[in-house]
Amino acid sequence: MEQWIYDSLYQKGQEYGLPASVWFPIVMNESSGNLYAVGDGGNSKGLFQINQGIEPTTKRRMHSDFDSTRLSDVNYQADYFMPVLKATYDEGVAQGLSGVDLTLYVEKNGERPNWTQNVVNSITKYYNQFTSGNLNTTNSASSGNTTSGNPTVTTSKTGLLDSLNPMNKVNDLKTEFFSWGITVLVLVLLIVIFLYSSKEVLA
Q1: What is the residue range of 93's domain?
Q2: How many folded domains does the chain comprise?
Q3: Mean per-residue pLDDT for 159-180?
Q4: 104 and 147 inside one domain
């Protein structure tokens, strides 16, 4: 997932009240953060793998109002599917779910009817990566069960959580304060040396 995609989704998540600990594992499981990911024989598309296949019972196309020509628009994709995830998220919260159990509930009931142990393992893996900040791997945006006619989106996931980690800001402030402290100390020493030298010259 590229940083700008993450940032856009994070902003949309804030707008909808959907925590990143929920949507991030789901998006990574579904598409590895690839805007153009295509799976399920060409029926599922985009970040959330929105399925536009034929519903077996009604024989109607699912999500027929989703415009798959707008896959390059991350905000469009988020606006289309985050409300669905948010509604399921609220259901899970009302049931007292939290942590990875809540994220799994949202994935199962809001995203993926075909529930397998592989999905559980994948969501759990990405949830743990997110909450621990251990995103120091490079991942191709095209997952094993998706294909794309667009160039592969590859990026290091290092730093995806920087904007969420207050300790990074604290460390930056410490570094800046230390640098200023050294500068002030050097200036004080120069002034002292200058004054001492001036006294000796006058004497």
Answers
A1: 3-164
A2: 2
A3: 54
A4: yes
